[in-house]
Amino acid sequence: QLNRLNYLLLLDLSKNRLKSIASQSFTRMHSLSTLDVSSNELSMFHFDDMKDLASIQILDLKNNPELQLN
After folding, report:
1. In the sheet that 58-60 helps form, which strands lie side by side, from edge to edge?
2. 65 Cβ partners below 8 Å, 6+ apart?
3. Alpha-carbon gap, residue 34 to 66, rounded angstroms
4. CA–CA separation, 54 vs 46, rounded Å?
5. pLDDT tens, the chain, 70 aa long
């Protein structure tokens, strides 16, 4: 469970062939400043799922060819 990593600063999920990210994946990750989900197969990304990421400074979504942002 990713949401138990309260003090994580950087999360690199790039190049994992991810097709989706569960909506509650980032809850309680208040310290996360960098999230890299680049070079996957994501088709949708919901910015509402980021509301708990108060410290986020870098969000890398590049190289997800079918990605739609909501």
Report:
1. 10-12, 34-36, 58-60
2. 41
3. 22
4. 16
5. 677 888 999 999 999 999 999 888 888 889 999 999 999 999 999 888 888 888 999 999 999 999 998 8
Smallest Cα–Cα separation from 70: which of 26, 28, 29, 21? 21
Give the amino acid at 56.
Answer: I
Phi, psi of 68 (to 5 degrees): -120, 135
Q: Are 67 and 61 spatial neighbours (Cβ–Cβ below 8 Å)?
A: yes
> 31: which 2 tokens?
């310290």
> Do 40 and 16 meet the contact criterion of CB atoms below 8 Å apart?
yes
Question: In sequence order, what are the residues at sequence separation of 6 or more whose Cβ sits closer than 8 angstroms to the Cβ of residue 54?
Answer: 30
